[in-house]
Design brief:
The protein is α+β, with helices and mostly antiparallel strands. It has one domain: mini-chromosome maintenance (MCM) complex, domain 2 (Sandwich). The chain is built from four helices and eight strands.
Length: about 160
């Protein structure tokens, strides 16, 4: 390859890097309005445990005990509009996990009963497609874009 080919290749790589960096830092501002929380965890306890209750105090902070089903589908925009930090405790396979929501930052796991603590060290997630997984506790926290509601009569596909 000639010198000009290398210069052209470097320019293309540089332009692509700038584009990715711009998308990563600025993203799509309207995307935040459509994000919902997706949470999967093992099902433990009785039906009475699905109602939020006071789980006590964790490091001086009021924590709400709840289930993954109760948190499923919560709109991040609704949490942001509340303007206050929220803390939830859910039950994993090895013990409780504490989730933390901070307006403008996202959601994170701040305490988990697992040996490696990778889920805790992941930090905040705030964009669609990001997730936190705690394999030992069988818990996954993800942010997804809200799907438009469909009537049950809508046809998705016709096969012959």
């Amino acid at each position: 390859m000639s010198r000009h080919d290398w210069i052209l290749l470097a320019g293309i790589v540089f332009a692509a890097a700038i584009g990715f960096a711009f998308q990563a830092f600025f993203g799509n501002p309207s995307e935040d309005q459509m994000l919902v929380l997706h949470l999967t965890a093992p099902a433990y306890g009785s039906a009475e445990a699905s109602a939020p209750e006071d789980a006590g105090v964790f490091r001086g902070i009021k924590v709400e005990r709840t289930t993954a089903e109760a948190l499923e589908g919560i709109s991040i925009a609704d949490l942001e509009s509340g303007g206050e930090e929220r803390y939830w405790q859910i039950q994993g396979a090895n013990g409780p996990l504490t989730l933390h929501f901070a307006p403008g930052q996202g959601i994170e796991i701040i305490e988990a009963q697992c040996p490696d603590q990778i889920c805790v060290r992941t930090g905040f997630i705030r964009k669609a497609g990001q997730s936190i997984v705690c394999v030992p506790n069988e818990v996954m926290v993800a942010l997804q874009t809200a799907e438009p509601t469909k009537d049950k009569g809508d046809v998705d596909a016709i096969l012959q």
